[in-house]
């Protein structure tokens, strides 16, 4: 790693330089809130809301300032020096390639461009790299209901979109046999996710398994009717 370069991770347990962030829980909440808006000012009130889930004590502002002082002191590799005071709050400076979320979204953007140009091997490769950055559930060790409600569904949707585009690329490349097992597992976990079931149907159909493809359609039809009252 070049001098001065750091690595931050939010796509799983919170990490700094490849290691789980070894700071107390409420300080992890502050660090996560800053990293999720890297290079942008996060107001103090937003940090307070995240730390105390909307029910802060009277001393919250002073306490958050103390958490930030300790983060600046305790984060490894000079990471704490990246935290800057800027009215009306704080920001953390992150360079290109240092935050896994930024790297993930960059790879996904390049994959979409490749797909639009018909470069399906390129799209598949970029998406494989992007998805490999996920280490588990995002913010898994960050005890903040506010952050989880506000950020985890957004991050999960980005991952699902990347998965679906990767499967679409694999089908374009004729690799339908190799993706059926994974598609089945994911479709079982998300019974109402229409795009995923459609990809599984295509893979089964191309393998000559039309009856199974039709059964997948019946399953997504039932799920969508029961959950939101629409048909596929």
Please outline the major beta sheet.
3 strands, antiparallel
**Percentage of residues in helical conformation:** 55-70%
Number of E-state strands = 6
Low-pLDDT runs of 5+ residues are none
- What amount of the residues lies in strands? 5-15%
Tell me the quaternary state: single chain
Tell me, briefly, the overall form.
elongated
Walk me through what this model shows.
This protein is mainly α and 232 residues long. The protein is 60% helix and 7% strand. It contains nine helices and six strands; from the N terminus they run βββαβααββαααααα. The protein has helices spanning 25-35, 44-52, 60-74, 100-116, 120-132, 145-172, 176-189, 194-206, 210-228, and strands spanning 8-9, 15-16, 19-20, 42-43, 83-86, 89-92. It has a three-stranded antiparallel beta sheet with strand order 1-2-3, with no helix packed on it. Strands 4-6-5 form a three-stranded antiparallel beta sheet. A hairpin with a 2-residue loop joins β5 (83-86) and β6 (89-92). α4 runs antiparallel to α5 and α6 (145-172) packs parallel to α8. It is elongated. The model has no long low-confidence stretch (mean pLDDT 94).
């Amino acid at each position: 790693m070049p001098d001065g370069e750091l690595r931050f991770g939010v796509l799983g347990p919170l990490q700094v330089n490849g290691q789980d962030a070894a700071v107390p829980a409420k300080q992890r909440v502050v660090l996560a809130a800053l990293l999720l808006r890297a290079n942008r000012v996060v107001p103090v009130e937003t940090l307070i809301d995240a730390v105390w889930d909307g029910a802060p004590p009277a001393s919250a502002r002073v306490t958050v300032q103390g958490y930030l002082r300790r983060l600046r002191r305790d984060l490894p590799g000079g990471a704490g020096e990246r935290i800057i005071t800027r009215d009306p709050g704080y920001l953390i400076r992150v360079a290109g390639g240092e935050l896994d979320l930024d790297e993930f979204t960059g790879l996904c953007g390049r994959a979409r461009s490749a797909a639009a140009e018909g470069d399906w091997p390129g799209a598949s490769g970029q998406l494989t790299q992007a998805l490999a950055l996920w280490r588990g559930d995002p913010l898994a060790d960050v005890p903040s209901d506010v952050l989880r409600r506000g950020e985890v569904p957004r991050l999960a949707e980005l991952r699902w979109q990347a998965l679906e585009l990767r499967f679409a690329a694999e089908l374009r490349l004729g690799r339908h046999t190799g993706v059926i097992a994974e598609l089945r597992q994911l479709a079982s976990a998300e019974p109402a996710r229409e795009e995923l079931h459609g990809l599984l149907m295509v893979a089964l159909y191309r393998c000559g398994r039309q009856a199974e493809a039709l059964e997948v359609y019946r399953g997504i039809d039932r799920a969508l009717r029961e959950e939101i009252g629409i048909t596929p």
